[in-house]
Each structure stands twice: as C-alpha cells, then as structure tokens.
Amino acid sequence: MPAVIGLFLRMVGLSIVPLGWKLLRGLGFAAISYVGIEAGLSQAKDYAFSQIGSMPAQYLSVLGMLKIDVCLNILFSAYVARAILGGMNGQGSKTSMKWMPKE
To answer: How far apart, in Å, do the first and last CA atoms of the chain sit?
Structure first.
C-alpha cells in the first residue's frame, strides 16, 4: 500500500510542477512587459514636457491656450490603457501582451 501512495504522489507532483512553471512564466512575462511599456512611456512623457518647458514664453502662452499639455496627458494615458486592455482576454483575466496592428 505505501508503494501505491508513493506512486500516486509522484504522479501528482510530476503533473503539477510543469503547470506551475508555465503559470509563473506567463505571469512574469506579462508583468515585465507592462512595467517596461510603462517605463518607456513615462520617459517619453517626461521628455516631451521638458522640451515644451524649454520653449520661449510667447510659445508657451499659445500652447497653454491650446491645452497641449492636457492633450499630451490624454494621449499617454490612452497608450497605457491600451497596453493594459491589450493584455486581457474576454473574461478580464491577464494574458500576454499582443501588439499587432489592425489591418
């Protein structure tokens, strides 16, 4: 009887361990992808605002009236939202990121 129990536990262990590794790899890739995308977009946003801030005062007043800063914030927020929603399936659970252009 102990041999049967040992064999059963070994079979369970051999089937669960690969499933766990696949799950950890999938979650890790999605998290690393999101962190990398968010870091890249925050650097691009900081660069854009620093370049706008170095303009002469007359240009800044015109850009302020046109609300260019609000436009850039909306644009970068939409990119982050697209990255988050692009990594979810229909049930709302996280999957790996897909950046395929729609044609």
So the answer is: 62
SS3 category, 88: strand
Query: Using CA atoms, how far apart are residues 77 and 31, in angstroms rounded to an integer?
Result: 18
pLDDT on residue 80: 77
82 sits in the region (left: phi over 0; alpha: psi -120 to 50; else beta) called alpha
Contacts of 96 (CB under 8 A, 6+ apart): 26, 29, 30, 33, 87
Q: Kindly report whether the global pTM for this prediction surpasses the value 0.70.
A: no
Paired residues of 94 in beta bridges: 88
Q: Is 83 exposed, middle or buried (0-12, 13-18, 19+ CB in 10 A)?
A: middle
Contacts of 63 (CB under 8 A, 6+ apart): 52, 55, 69
